[in-house]
Specification:
The chain is an alpha+beta fold and about 240 residues long. The chain is built from 7 helices and 11 strands. The strands form 2 sheets. The chain has a 7-stranded mixed β-sheet, sandwiched between helices. The longest helix has 15 residues, at about 170-185. It is globular.
Length: about 240
């Protein structure tokens, strides 16, 4: 199958024409194109020095928010409330940390400076959101150090997870569990994890056929999008 080259028009080829998940090359990272891509089951993923690449993998790796799995040891860690959790407090810092953290088998990062700027813009428009885990000062409980978190895009009843990082034990895991519970309470039915990772499989994420994902997408997108700054209204330790 061909890999399509995008021009200035905000349009993508059908996802079933993707070659091993790679669908198209080129275009830009404008908010309009990014939102059009996610709404069509497509996302950007490329490394520094590569052209802008757009993907629609088959299978698709997803986590229904009502199927979240929490292991016994993680439940114990959550019960101790070792971190203060926030939403949309340090989006730019979260995405920058996700870009900096070394990852096994990866020599660099796909979260380029261009990607960071594009998603910060989506955050300013109310579509991209972050969840933060802070190590607190022992004396007064004030947030002291950002030690974990993740970010993604919210559209309707869908949350498209992008990346996470942890600089302290279980920091990103605890933030992820709290966010999943909050998303479910808000009516967000599905987290798109994009491609398989063992880490997210432990939380209950599963592979589904791309055709199944595409069939679910219109209904998910038909729900209202919760825009603007997010804050928790579900207790993070109530698991």
């Amino acid at each position: 199958m061909p890999v399509y080259r995008l021009g200035s028009r905000l349009a993508f080829p059908p996802v079933d024409e993707a070659e091993d998940g790679l669908l198209a090359v080129g275009g830009d990272l404008s908010p309009q194109r990014l939102l059009a891509a996610y709404s069509a089951g497509i996302f950007p993923w490329y490394n520094d020095g590569q052209p802008l690449l757009w993907h629609a993998p088959d299978p698709r790796f997803v986590l229904p928010t009502d199927k979240l799995l929490i292991g016994r040891s993680l439940r114990k860690a959550i019960a101790k409330a070792p971190y203060q959790l926030t939403m949309d407090t340090a989006f730019a810092d979260v995405i920058a940390r996700c870009a900096e953290v070394p990852r096994p088998g990866q020599a660099g990062t796909w979260i380029t400076d261009e990607m960071q700027a594009a998603y910060v813009k989506l955050h300013e428009l109310g579509f991209a959101h972050s969840v933060e885990a802070w190590r607190c000062d022992d004396r007064d409980g004030a947030p002291r150090e950002l030690v974990g978190g993740f970010y993604g895009i919210s559209l309707g009843a869908l949350f498209c997870g992008e990346s996470m990082f942890a600089l302290a034990p279980d920091a990103s895991k605890i933030a992820f569990v709290a966010a999943c519970r909050q998303l479910r309470a808000w009516g967000t039915a599905l987290i798109d994890c994009q491609v398989h990772t063992d880490h997210l499989a432990r939380f209950g994420a599963v592979d589904i056929p791309r055709a199944t994902y595409m069939a679910l997408l219109p209904k998910l997108l038909d729900e209202p999008t919760r825009r603007g700054k997010w804050t928790f209204d579900v207790a993070a330790t109530d698991v």
